[in-house]
Amino acid sequence: MPEKNYDVVVIGGGPGGYVAAIRAAQLGFKTACVEMRKTLGGTCLNVGCIPSKALLTSSEKFDEARNHLASHGVKIGSVELDLTAMLANKDKVVKDNVSGVEFLFKKNKIDWLRGKGRLVSATEVAVEGEGGTEVVGAKNIIIATGSDVTPLPGLTIDEKRVVSSTGALELSEVPKRLAVIGGGVIGLELGSVWSRLGAEVTVIEFLDRILPGMDGEVSKQMQRILSKQGLSFRLGTKVTGAKAGKGAIALTVEPAQGGAAETVEAEVVLVAIGRRPYTDGLGLEAAGVEKDAKGRVKIDKHWRTNVPSIYAIGDVVEGPMLAHKAEDEGVAVAELIAGQHPHVNYDAVPSVVYTWPEVAQVGRTEEQLKAEGIQYKAGKFPFSANGRARALHMTDGFVKVLADARTDRVLGVHIIGANAGDLIAELGLAMEFGASSEDIARTCHAHPTLNEAVKEAALAVEGRALHI
Ligand code: FAD
Ligand code: NAI
How far is the CA of 168 from the centre of ligand 2 (A)? Predict the structure, then answer.
């Protein structure tokens, strides 16, 4: 019998795990969270969402000062980059956030078991820490071990010249040329950061489009917008080899469907071709926990593995690899353990790309609706016709509302535009309440705001937008 026993032991202190731990503690459970990093917060706070958004914000400010403030009548002379200070700011933002989670653990009386967690049985977890191994008992175990970078065969990530997102968050100088392999979310966000800071960025994408999970029209327009910002794209292209020279790395690329090989040279190569579930050394076999065909921990629709006392959430299970999805699952599992009846509506999980302008979506794309044979109406409104966007000089992009042709229920919304990531919240709420496009169109929206474009797009579903 272990000496320490808990109601709930969470393995992994990322947004899925730490939120599950907080909710479990709120519900009165004796709770521990096992985390092997030196700080809490997981991928998201340490090397993901938070540091990338810090650099995106700082590089946006640099770009704004250099290229856009003059058009507002603000003269500031020459603008210089202090990369060391920019990186230090990012590190401080991370530090403040991760120590915030540690504070929340103390406040909620959650034990942080420092070390690597391994399942020993259905109710025991071994924690391998600096001082040795301790086995703790757990009535319920929540696996929240997240994900890790998918490697590209033939390219060794050294986090200096060939980097993953983690290395791309701390390059000590701006590379002259940056090759980004993968035109997904990480590629475009971190590609944008270094492009704004002066690198020539080439995005090499296997498919014939960027942002494959997003609405096709959004992908096309974003590619145009990012190209205008200076990023180059090689779509339908695969990397077949890499040779590191003294100064640059030479990537051999070929058309994805086969054809003549060419060379793309860059001082730094960012590998951003997706992430894979992380279960290394977790002892799934010892506890008899099954994985699915994609290597994720297999769960039922209540996040239960095949072992009744063990649950799994976040990036390590199916579904979009997003922090807010992991958090909502964390809350749901804690409530489930408490005998409640939680629900996560996967149809209303928003997704945001923090480029400039931002891209945001919730619900289904036009391609998905067509594939599912659902009749829909689309209403679209461009930011170029929105007064606030004009005042902000941020007129790129549009709002597109997709509504069921028969019932008018909103099925999906797609936005490219300034603050799209904030604008999408109203649509997530609308979808949670089963709103129709008419509900949004008849809701009074403050003037002058970017949100008025949302209302106008909803009006456009019935062909009655007012300002276009
Ligand atoms: P993780 O955050 O990966 O946390 C898992 C934790 O478990 C880690 O800290 C790990 O050390 C620990 N762990 C693993 N195994 C063990 C073990 N055996 N014992 C002890 N500890 C263990 N998502 C968004 O929603 N918005 C964004 O803007 C965004 N930006 C991103 C930017 C980048 C560069 C990256 C890489 C990701 C980004 N994501 C973003 C995705 C987001 O980070 C993940 O979806 C989220 O972190 C998943 O949370 P999680 O709790 O499932 O796993
Ligand atoms: P991704 O899945 O978004 O994009 C990977 C891209 O690489 C795809 O376009 C894919 O077609 C392409 N690709 C795959 N293999 C390739 C190859 N061999 N050669 C060239 N291209 C190839 O994955 P990414 O960008 O690595 O991000 C990982 C995860 O992190 C995502 O699932 C995302 O949800 C999450 N994330 C979320 C963010 C956000 O919410 N803003 C920001 C950053 C990451």
Answer: 14
Smallest CA-to-CA distance from 449 within 419, 421, 429 is with 419
- Put simply, whether the predicted model's pTM sits higher than 0.70 gets the answer yes
In this model, does residue 433 exceed pLDDT 90? yes
Same domain flag for 61 and 173: no
Positions marked catalytic: 447
Query: Which ligand is in closest contact with the Cα of 11?
Result: 1
Domain assignment present for 466: no
Report the alpha-carbon distance of residue 176 to residue 438 in Å, rounded: 50
Task: Please tell me whether residues 352 and 337 are part of one structural domain.
Answer: no
Residue 245 has pLDDT above 90, yes or no: no
Over residues 381-407, the pLDDT tens digits come to 999 999 999 999 999 999 999 999 999
195 CA to centre of ligand 2 in angstroms: 18
- Whether residue 126 sits in one domain with residue 70: yes
Q: Ligand 2 pocket check: which of 186, 204, 252, 316 to mutate, most ligand atoms within 8 Å of Cβ? A: 186
Mind listing the pLDDT tens digit for each residue in 272-327? 999 999 999 999 999 999 999 999 999 999 999 999 999 999 999 999 999 999 99
